[in-house]
Structure formats: C-alpha cells, structure tokens
TrEMBL record:
<keyword id="KW-0808">Transferase</keyword>
<feature type="domain" description="Histidine kinase">
    <location>
        <begin position="41"/>
        <end position="257"/>
    </location>
</feature>
<keyword id="KW-0813">Transport</keyword>
<keyword id="KW-0902">Two-component regulatory system</keyword>
<keyword id="KW-0547">Nucleotide-binding</keyword>
<comment type="function">
    <text>Member of the two-component regulatory system PhoR/PhoB involved in the phosphate regulon genes expression. PhoR may function as a membrane-associated protein kinase that phosphorylates PhoB in response to environmental signals.</text>
</comment>
<keyword id="KW-0472">Membrane</keyword>
<keyword id="KW-0592">Phosphate transport</keyword>
<dbReference type="GO" id="GO:0016301">
    <property type="term" value="F:kinase activity"/>
</dbReference>
<keyword id="KW-1133">Transmembrane helix</keyword>
<keyword id="KW-0067">ATP-binding</keyword>
<keyword id="KW-0418">Kinase</keyword>
<keyword id="KW-0597">Phosphoprotein</keyword>
<protein>
    <recommendedName>
        <fullName>Phosphate regulon sensor protein PhoR</fullName>
        <ecNumber>2.7.13.3</ecNumber>
    </recommendedName>
</protein>
<keyword id="KW-0812">Transmembrane</keyword>
<keyword id="KW-1003">Cell membrane</keyword>
C-alpha cells in the first residue's frame, strides 16, 4: 500500500527538555514486506516439486533390496536430503506465515497439561528411549492462544532437548505460576550452551555447532519460530544455560493470557 510509515523517538533531557525525532521508514518497511512475500512465495512454490520427488523416492525405496549396494546407498542419501529440504521449506513457510498472518484468528483457551502430554508422546518416539521425559503441571489455569502455534513452539524446544542434551538425560516440560504470570518451561540436564551464544540463538540459521545440528536434522529455524510464536502471544523467551549444566528455555506469558478452566472442563477432566 502507499501509506507512509514514520518512526518517532522521544528523548528526555533532565526534567523539562524533550527531543522529538521523526524518521521516514516507508522504504525500509516496503523492502521488509517484499522480503517476507518473496520467502513465502518461494517456500510455497518449492513444496509441490519436493512432494513429487519424495513420492517417487519412496516407491524406489520399496525395491532397494534389488538394487546394487552403491545405488541403494545413493537412494538413501537422496531420501534423507529430500526430507531435510522438506523440513526446511515447511519451517520457512511457517515462519513467514507467523510474520504475515493476522494474529489471534484461531485463539482459544488451551488446556496446557494435555498439550504438554501430547508433545511428550511425540518426543518419546523421536527419543526412542534415550531420554527420560517428564511433564509437571503446577498451574491450573488455561493459556489463551493458538493451540497449533503453541504446539509447534513447545515441540521445537522439546525436540531440541532430545537432539542436543545427550543420551540418558532428563527433559522436563513444566507449566508453573510466576507472580501473576505463568511460564512454560522446557529444561534438560544435558550438555548446555556457552552463554556467549545465547543472545543470538533465536536468529534464523544461527547454530552453535553447524556440523552437529545439520547432522541431527535441525533446520536452524526452530528458535526463530519459537520467538515469533511468543511475540504473537505477548510472551517472551528466557534462556538460561551453562556448558555441562543443562539448558532451560522459559516462555513467560502475562496474566492477560491466562484463564480459569470452566467448571465443565474441570469435571470432564476428573
Ligand atoms: P537447529 O536446532 O535447527 O540448529 P534451533 O534454532 O532450534 O536450530 O537451535 C539453535 C541452536 O541452539 C542449535 O543448533 C543448538 O546448537 C542450540 N540448542 C538449542 N537447544 C539446545 C539444548 N536444549 N541444549 C543444547 N543446545 C541447544
């Protein structure tokens, strides 16, 4: 659209002096919009060809045992890389939807405990018995938001813990009260992260160890997705970690996002 976008900044000097600055950021705003649309369109267009490729590869995998070993290995590689590309395209698409779509369209009170239980079950299959996954629910309130978006944010945190904490570790999914607010936490007692990396972790494609995270199947977009989902829920992410002492990812939701479960919901849970 042709609207002009202005940015204002007020600076206080002492008790009675103010400096007001206005900046015309129309061009910047438009470029940013073009970048978003471009990423959304490209990811969308890449989806169909990738689905077709993956479909053919799957039919060939069925007859892999009839192929010479070298070809069968190549086929395995092609499948793995195609699925990596699919994950990447899906994450890019999700991220641009989070930036473009109107927020709040599918918001409703979410029963946090059952959401965490569902995510734990998914993570169990990724972990294949290599971790101990626990759910702790200390706050009876529901969280008002988009269940789908919250599920992808929390899943990203839990799947990261499964990928990076190391075998034999504990992973806890926790919903607890903090003053008037409430927190969704994903904590592990694994390898942890050097604090120098923490401020940049939610940037797109930022990784502590590039080789290792591509090997584990990450896209580099997980924490960027988490950050955007939380922004849309008036929430923010805190990360506490030290090498060798585990990692804690805390999503803090304001009181305005919390609701008492209805009597009907309570009795059906009992
Ligand atoms: P990806 O996992 O695809 O690389 P993310 O944005 O989800 O991208 O995570 C960014 C980086 O943060 C990871 O590459 C990893 O180095 C680090 N990380 C995330 N979660 C943990 C964790 N629980 N323990 C240790 N490192 C982690």
């Amino acid at each position: 659209d042709e609207r002009q976008v202005l940015q204002f900044q007020i600076t206080l000097y002492g008790d009675d002096e103010r400096l007001l600055m206005a900046r015309d950021i129309t061009r910047l705003h438009r470029l940013e919009q073009m970048r978003r649309d471009f990423v959304a369109n490209v990811s969308h267009e890449l989806r169909t060809p990738l689905t077709v490729l993956a479909g053919y590869l799957e039919t060939y995998t069925d007859i892999a045992d009839q192929l010479p070993p070298r070809l069968a290995r190549g086929l395995g590689q092609m499948e793995a890389q195609t699925s990596r590309m699919q994950n990447l395209v899906n994450d890019l698409l999700l991220l641009s939807r989070l930036e473009i779509d109107r927020r709040g369209d599918d918001e409703a009170p979410v029963a946090v405990e059952s959401l965490l239980e569902a995510i734990r079950r998914d993570a169990e299959s990724l972990s294949a018995g290599r971790h101990r996954l626990l759910v702790e629910c200390h706050d009876p309130r529901q969280l008002v938001g988009s269940e789908q978006e919250l599920r992808s944010a929390i899943s990203n945190l839990v799947f990261n813990a499964v990928r990076y904490a190391g075998d034999g570790r504990h992973i806890t999914l926790r919903w607890r009260t903090q003053g008037d607010a409430a927190c969704l936490e994903v904590e592990d007692d694994g390898e942890g992260i050097d604090p120098v990396h923490i401020p940049r972790l939610t940037e797109r494609f930022y990784r502590v160890d590039k080789g290792r995270s591509t090997a584990t199947g990450g896209t580099g977009l997980g924490l960027a997705i988490v950050k955007h989902v939380l922004l849309r829920h008036d929430a923010h992410l805190e990360i506490v970690s030290h090498p060798g002492r585990g990692a804690l990812f805390r999503c803090v939701f304001p009181a305005t996002r919390l609701s008492r479960p209805s009597a009907v919901a309570l009795s059906s849970q009992a």
